[in-house]
Amino acid sequence: MTVTVDSALGTAWKYTKMYPYVVFGTGFDTYSEGFRKSWEAGKALKFKDRFTGAFKAGNTAAATAHQQLLSENNGSFWQATKKSITSIWPDLRDGWKAAGETAKTANKSKFLARLGSVGKVLGKRMPLIGAALTLAFELPNIIKATANEGVLTGAGETAKTGVRLGISTLLGAITQAIIPIPFLGGMVGFVAGDFLGRFIVGKSYTEKKATEQAAAGGSNNPFTIDTSTIPYGGGSFANDEEFQKLQQAYMQASGQNNNMNLTGGNITNPYGNFNTLM
Fold first, then answer.
1. Which domain holds residue 135?
2. Which of 215, 239, 258 is a domain's end point?
3. Taking the CB of residue 72, how many other CB atoms lie within 10 A of it?
4. Contacts of 167 (CB under 8 A, 6+ apart)
């Protein structure tokens, strides 16, 4: 049993170390390529065996590339990430130029070829772009949870975001392999993965608070009026003198002079006992 536990912990730690590479780096593309090759080679297999084999092949490809990446960057993933970010524009420029020349030689559409080159470059950085967008949306929620409930709650919200990113990236890599259309194939998995991640980790702190307020009937609405504090509330009537005093007080508060002389029988406030004036 000890060996099994140690093995499981070792595997978990291995994939934990790979997490930044796959979610923020180029591991997405590496995993997707390994999955795709195995998926295409296993057409004769049953779906379960085909998918399992492709899944393992993707893991192996990503793990191998991750080790090579670390060896080339002094063991630092973030140094490699910096290179990936700063190389976006040069790669776009060089890819655009090369695609145009290749299309011209082959007598094909230069525009479509260049558009495809842009998709390939951005596709490799899609995990980084998607993760940045997700973090930008979730950061206010994490800050609010930390400020209101403490560091542990904030850490919990951070962990939820991490799980969502991991699931959406993994599904994105798989759908990119199965749907080999640059950017689009991965986006399908990213969206589906985010929905699945939300289902697994549950609502965020902000969403929970909004649900609680709605269930409370909007008690935190600053415009809610307690009619019991309003003079003559509940549909009662005021006599001439009482109504005139009340109206004069309102007119004076609003900076107007009241020269009206109200006479006659009992008068009902036409504004619903001044509810609309509060």
1. 18-215
2. 215
3. 12
4. 193, 194, 196, 197, 200
Enumerate residues 6+ apart whose C-beta is below 8 A from 76. Answer: 70
Does one domain contain both 203 and 166?
yes
Terminal C-alpha separation, the chain: 72
Q: Report d(CA 136, CA 156) in Å as an integer.
A: 17
Alpha carbons 163 and 180: distance in angstroms, whole number: 25
As averages over each run of 10 residues, the pLDDT of the chain (278 residues) reads: 59 76 79 92 91 93 85 73 72 83 81 78 68 80 89 90 87 88 80 89 86 70 50 52 71 58 46 44
Count of domains for the chain: 2
Let me know whether 39 and 64 are in one domain.
yes
The Cα–Cα gap between 189 and 130 comes to 12
Indicate the pTM of the whole model.
0.60
Assigned token pair, 70: 């670390």
Q: Rounded to the nearest 10 degrees, how much is the dihedral formed by the CA atoms of 70, 74, 79, 81?
A: -10
**Distance between CA atoms of residues 161 and 112, nearest Å:** 36
Q: Is residue 193 part of a domain?
A: yes
| The predicted structure's pLDDT at residue 278 | 42
Residue 11 domain flag: no
Q: How far apart are CA 13 and CA 157, in angstroms?
A: 21
Separation between Cα atoms, residue 49 and residue 45, nearest integer Å: 6
HSE (CB half, 13 Å, CA atoms) of 101? 6
SS3 (DSSP) at 238: strand
Nearest CA-CA partner of 99 in 87, 88, 110: 110
The Cα–Cα gap between 101 and 113 comes to 9
**Tell me, what's the pLDDT at 48?**
92
